[in-house]
User: Which sequence fits this backbone?
C-alpha cells in the first residue's frame, strides 16, 4: 500500500536509468580513485623528499612541483572540465559520458591527494629516518620498507577523503555531458523540474558517501588495531 | 677501535656560526664501554652522530677499525653503517611492523640473506634480549623497557662490532634503566662488542662505563678511567657535573662553617678509594698510626661498574705532624685524598 503511494509520487522515475547511472558513477569513481592514488602517491613522496630538510632536498624540483600542484588545485573543477575537453578527447576518444569524465576527475583529484600524502609523511617521526640512515638504507628502501608501511593507515584515510570529494566532482561533470547520477540530477531533476528524480539521485549519493566513509574508517581502525 | 682526531663542526644559524664540536679528539679501545657525558647542548649528540657520519664534520678524521669514514664513497659508507648498531632514546620502532619485522629490518635492507637465515638471526637476537614471546606483537602493546630491548635486538642483528647508544635509558624509569644497563653490559661481555654511549645521567656512567669523556661547549674537557673521573675530577666543570650535588653543597657549607672555627688542629679531608682498599680498615689505621682522632661527616660506599669504591668526608683532629703522618699512611694504602681545609 505504502509502496504504491511512493510509486504514485514518483511518476518520473525510470529505475533502469537510475540503475545505469549508479553503475556509471561507481565506475567513474573507482577508476578515478585508482589513478588519483597511483599518481598522487609518487607526487606526494617527491614533494616530501625534495622539500627543505628532506632526504633529496632540491629547491627547484620542489618549487616547480609545488607550483603545478597549487595551480591545478586552484582551478575550479567546472572550469577544469571545460579546458580539458581537447586533452580528454585525445586520451579516451570522447569528452562525454562516464569515460569522458575520468581524465578531468583524476587531474582534479590527484593534486589534492598528493598534498594529503605529503602532510601525512610530515607527521612521521623524524627519528625513523635517522634509524633508517643508520642502518645504511638506500632512498628506495626507506620509501618501500619504511615510509609506505608506516603511511598505510593515513593513506587509507586520505583515499577516503579524496573519494568523497570525487563523488561531488562526478555530479558536477553532469553539467557538461558527463554521465552518472549527477547527470541525471541535472538533466531530469533540474532542467525538467522532476523533483522526484532529484531526490532519488541525491539520496543515492548521500548513501554512497556514507558507505565510503564507513568502509574507510573501519579499514583504518582494523589496520591500526593490529 | 675508534680514533677521532681534531674534529670540528659548526652550524650556520642566520649570520652566526655556532661551534658544536671544537677540536674533539678521542680514542676508544676494542671491547670498552665508553661514556660521553655532558649537559644538553654540550655537543654530545652531534659527536655521536659523527661516529656513523650522520653528521658530516667540517674537518678532522673519524677512524673506525682502520677505516677513515670521512674518505668513504656513499655506498662504502652505507656498508660501514651496517657494521655500526645504533640505539635511540625514543626507540624509533616502526608501528606498522611486528617486533619480529622491526628486528629483521636491517637484515632486509642488506638484502643478501634468505628469509630462513633472517628468521634464524632474528630469533637468536630476540632470545638474547628476552623477548622471544613477543615476536608477533606490535610495538604499541609494549612497555618502554621492552621497546628498548627491541631497539637493542635490532641494533645487534647485523652483528656489528660497535654499538652507539644515544641516551638509550633517558626515557625510562630508574628500575627499567637498570635492566637495560645490565643488558648492555651482558652484551658487551658476551659478544665482545664495543659500546659508545652518550648520556646526561651519572648513574649510567657509574654502572657500565670503563672510560669517560666529559664534554662541555663542544670541547672534551676531561677524559680517562671512569673511577678516576668519578672520584676525583680535575676540572671544576667536571666537578660540578660529576660530584654529587649534595656532597658539593655539603662541602660548601663545611667550608664556610670552618672559616669561623678554624684551628690548626682541625682539618677536613675528602678520602676516595677503589677496589681492594675499600675492604681495609683505613680510618682505623690512620687513627692509630697518626695518633689522632676523627669524625665522619659524610660518606658514600658503592660500586662503579663492578669496582667497589668509597668516598668519605672526615674531620681530622691532630697537629701538623700527625697530619703529615696520616698523609703518608693514605699514600701507602693507595687512598686518594684531598685536604679541603
Assistant:
Amino acid at each position: 500500500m505504502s509502496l504504491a503511494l511512493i510509486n504514485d509520487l514518483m511518476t518520473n522515475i525510470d529505475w533502469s536509468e537510475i540503475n545505469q547511472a549508479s553503475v556509471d558513477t561507481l565506475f567513474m569513481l573507482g577508476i578515478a580513485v585508482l589513478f588519483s592514488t597511483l599518481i598522487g602517491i609518487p607526487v606526494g613522496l617527491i614533494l616530501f623528499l625534495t622539500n627543505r630538510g628532506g632526504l633529496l632536498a632540491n629547491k627547484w624540483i620542489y618549487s616547480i612541483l609545488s607550483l603545478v600542484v597549487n595551480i591545478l588545485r586552484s582551478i575550479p573543477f567546472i572550469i577544469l572540465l571545460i579546458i580539458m575537453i581537447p586533452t580528454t578527447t585525445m586520451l579516451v576518444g570522447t569528452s562525454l559520458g562516464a569515460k569522458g569524465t575520468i581524465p578531468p576527475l583524476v587531474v582534479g583529484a590527484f593534486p589534492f591527494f598528493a598534498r594529503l600524502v605529503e602532510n601525512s609523511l610530515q607527521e612521521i617521526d623524524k627519528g625513523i629516518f635517522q634509524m633508517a640512515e643508520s642502518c645504511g638504507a638506500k632512498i628506495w628502501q626507506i620509501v618501500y620498507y619504511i615510509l609506505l608501511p608506516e603511511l598505510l593507515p593515513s593513506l587509507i584515510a586520505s583515499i577516503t577523503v579524496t573519494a568523497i570529494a570525487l563523488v561531488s566532482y562526478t555530479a558536477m561533470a553532469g553539467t557538461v555531458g558527463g554521465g552518472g547520477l549527477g547527470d541525471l540530477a541535472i538533466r531530469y531533476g533540474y532542467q525538467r523540474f522532476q523533483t522526484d528524480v532529484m531526490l532519488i539521485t541525491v539520496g543515492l549519493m548521500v548513501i554512497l558517501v556514507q558507505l565510503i566513509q564507513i568502509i574507510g574508517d573501519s579499514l583504518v581502525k582494523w589496520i591500526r588495531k593490529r | 677501535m675508534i680514533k677521532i682526531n681534531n674534529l670540528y663542526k659548526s652550524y650556520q644559524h642566520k649570520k652566526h656560526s655556532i661551534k658544536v664540536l671544537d677540536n674533539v679528539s678521542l680514542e676508544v679501545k676494542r671491547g670498552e664501554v665508553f661514556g660521553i657525558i655532558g649537559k644538553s647542548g654540550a655537543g654530545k649528540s652531534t659527536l655521536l652522530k659523527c661516529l656513523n657520519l650522520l653528521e658530516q664534520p667540517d674537518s678532522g678524521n673519524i677512524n673506525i677499525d682502520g677505516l677513515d669514514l670521512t674518505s668513504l664513497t656513499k655506498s662504502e659508507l652505507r656498508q660501514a653503517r651496517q657494521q655500526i648498531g645504533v640505539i635511540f632514546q625514543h626507540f624509533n620502532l616502526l608501528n606498522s611492523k611486528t617486533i619480529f619485522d622491526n628486528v629483521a629490518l636491517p637484515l632486509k635492507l642488506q638484502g643478501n640473506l634468505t628469509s630462513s637465515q633472517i628468521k634464524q638471526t632474528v630469533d637468536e637476537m630476540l632470545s638474547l634480549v628476552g623477548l622471544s614471546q613477543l615476536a608477533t606483537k606490535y610495538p604499541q602493546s609494549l612497555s618502554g623497557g621492552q621497546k628498548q630491548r627491541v631497539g637493542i635486538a635490532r641494533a645487534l642483528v647485523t652483528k656489528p662490532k660497535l654499538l652507539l647508544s644515544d641516551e638509550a635509558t633517558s626515557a625510562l624509569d630508574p628500575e627499567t634503566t637498570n635492566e637495560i644497563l645490565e643488558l648492555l653490559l651482558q652484551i658487551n661481555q658476551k659478544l665482545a662488542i664495543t659500546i659508545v654511549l652518550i648520556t646526561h645521567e651519572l648513574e649510567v656512567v657509574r654502572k657500565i662505563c670503563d672510560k669517560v669523556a666529559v664534554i662541555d661547549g663542544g670541547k672534551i674537557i676531561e677524559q680517562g678511567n671512569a673511577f678516576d673521573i668519578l672520584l676525583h675530577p680535575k676540572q671544576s666543570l667536571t666537578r660540578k657535573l660529576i660530584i654529587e650535588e649534595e656532597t658539593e653543597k655539603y662541602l660548601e657549607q663545611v667550608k664556610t662553617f670552618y672559616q669561623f672555627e678554624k684551628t690548626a688542629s682541625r682539618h677536613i679531608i675528602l678520602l676516595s678509594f677503589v677496589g681492594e682498599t675499600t675492604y681495609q680498615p683505613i680510618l682505623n689505621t690512620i687513627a692509630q698510626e697518626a695518633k689522632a682522632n676523627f669524625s665522619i661527616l659524610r660518606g658514600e660506599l658503592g660500586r662503579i661498574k663492578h669496582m667497589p669504591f668509597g668516598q668519605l668526608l672526615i674531620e681530622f683532629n691532630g697537629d701538623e705532624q700527625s697530619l703529615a703522618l696520616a698523609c703518608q699512611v693514605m699514600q701507602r694504602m693507595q687512598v686518594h685524598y684531598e685536604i679541603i681545609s
User: Anything to note?
Assistant: The CA atoms of residues 239 and 245 of chain B lie 9 Å apart. Chain B touches chain A at residues 52, 54, 77-82, 84, 86, 88, 90, 92, 94-97, 105-106, 108-110, 138, 158 (CB under 8 Å).
